[in-house]
Specification:
The chain contains one helix and no strands. By secondary structure, it is an all-alpha fold. It has one domain. The longest helix is centred in the middle third of the chain and has 27 residues.
Length: about 30
Amino acid sequence: VNSNQKIKERLYLIYNQPVTVEIKKLAHQ
């Protein structure tokens, strides 16, 4: 269960990184 949670957190960060980058780009415009 513990390792599974870490995998979910890792995937969450990987999927949200590009999103936050796009938001930052839009915020700078």
